[in-house]
Design brief:
Elements: E1 2-4, E2 8-11, E3 25-29, E4 34-36, E5 43-46, H1 62-67, E6 71-75, E7 80-88, E8 91-94, E9 97-100, E10 102-106, E11 111-119, E12 141-145, E13 150-152, E14 160-170, E15 175-177, E16 183-195, H2 203-206, E17 213-217, H3 224-230, E18 235-239, E19 243-244, E20 249-251, E21 256-259, E22 265-266, E23 272-274, E24 277-283, E25 292-293
Parallel strand pairs: 1-4, 2-5, 3-6, 4-7, 5-7, 6-10, 7-11, 9-12, 10-13, 11-14, 13-15, 14-16, 16-17, 17-18, 18-21, 19-22, 20-23, 21-24
Antiparallel strand pairs: 8-9, 24-25
């Protein structure tokens, strides 16, 4: 089966589920299906809520669900494909502040996410309006990054979860796989992400990266050494902010480490061996994706 979204902007906020199984989810996919749009920037799906409510209220109510928003799209079935669209991360509200949460969380096996842009909002921080003109002006604190924008979950920690991620650009955040997903299989290719905290990526995700994966370190990360150690051939790591390593680190052959002007990698008392290539960053486009590298 195929569900087609024509070109347009789709606000799915009002469909946020109050039910426990899907609580905090806006667009829920619970059957094997292909969901296709008209193209990146043409079909845009988003959900956010500037409503009050108490996060301490654990009752299973519609109001709590709207406050405790988790995912713009939740995949609760096997054999699902999402393709050719832009998805905005969920904006959730807690304790007087707005938080950037997940755009997509996949629980099913054999999931494919292809030709998708995951965006946050202007400058990656909630201000007065989002980039598509929905006015959620508020006097509360701006959004904070809450973690990965794309989450791989699962129902069998002892099993294998297969996922294909290709041609995906994540403006703010990264990809994380929970232990409930078990062993990951599949491949991530032609994908770019921007990491702002250690929760934005997990090393098991790095284990299935293939060609043309760009990882931007846009903040000083506690797990920078883990990322550098786990990166596979075909990955470029853009060190846009200086990083300190908390363990011995070896960069694999075929990995490119691109250093921004003034950015450094400080190994401190630990060893740092780069078997790949180190280059300076020469240029970048408006999304922060690097378009040219100048080799030494």
């Amino acid at each position: 089966d195929t569900l087609v979204f024509d070109a347009g902007i789709y606000d799915v906020t009002e469909t946020v589920s109050p039910h426990h199984t899907y609580q905090g989810s806006a667009f829920i996919i619970d059957k094997s299906i292909t969901v296709t749009g008209a193209g990146v920037g043409q079909t845009i799906i988003y959900a956010d809520y500037a409503n009050g409510g108490s996060v301490s209220d654990v009752s299973n109510t519609e109001e709590t669900a709207k406050v405790n928003q988790q995912n713009t799209i939740t995949i609760r079935a096997d054999n699902v494909t999402i393709q050719d669209m832009t998805v905005q991360v969920m904006i959730s509200y807690a304790s007087g502040a707005f938080y950037i949460n997940k755009a997509i969380e996949a629980y099913g096996d054999n999931t494919t996410i292809s030709n998708v842009d995951i965006v946050s909002n202007t400058n990656g921080v909630r201000a007065t309006n989002d980039i598509y003109g929905k006015d959620i002006t508020t006097t509360t604190s701006p959004a904070k990054t809450a973690g990965a924008s794309l989450m791989i979950n699962g129902d069998d920690a002892e099993g294998t979860t297969n996922i294909i991620i290709e041609n995906v650009n994540i403006e703010t955040g990264g990809i994380q796989a929970q232990s409930a997903a078990g062993t990951l299989a599949g491949e991530i290719t032609n994908t770019t992400m921007s990491l702002l905290n250690e929760n934005d990526i997990s090393t098991n995700v790095l284990g299935i990266t293939g060609s043309n994966v760009e990882i931007n370190l846009d903040a000083a990360l506690d797990n920078a050494a883990d990322i550098l150690n786990a990166a596979k051939s075909g990955t470029t790591i853009y060190v846009n902010v200086s990083q300190s390593l908390d363990k011995d680190t070896t960069v694999s052959e075929g990995v490119t480490v691109a250093l921004a002007t003034g950015a450094t990698i400080d190994a401190g008392e630990h060893s740092y061996t780069n078997n790949g290539t180190t280059v300076p960053i020469q240029d970048e486009d408006s999304l922060g994706l690097r378009s040219e590298l100048e080799t030494d």
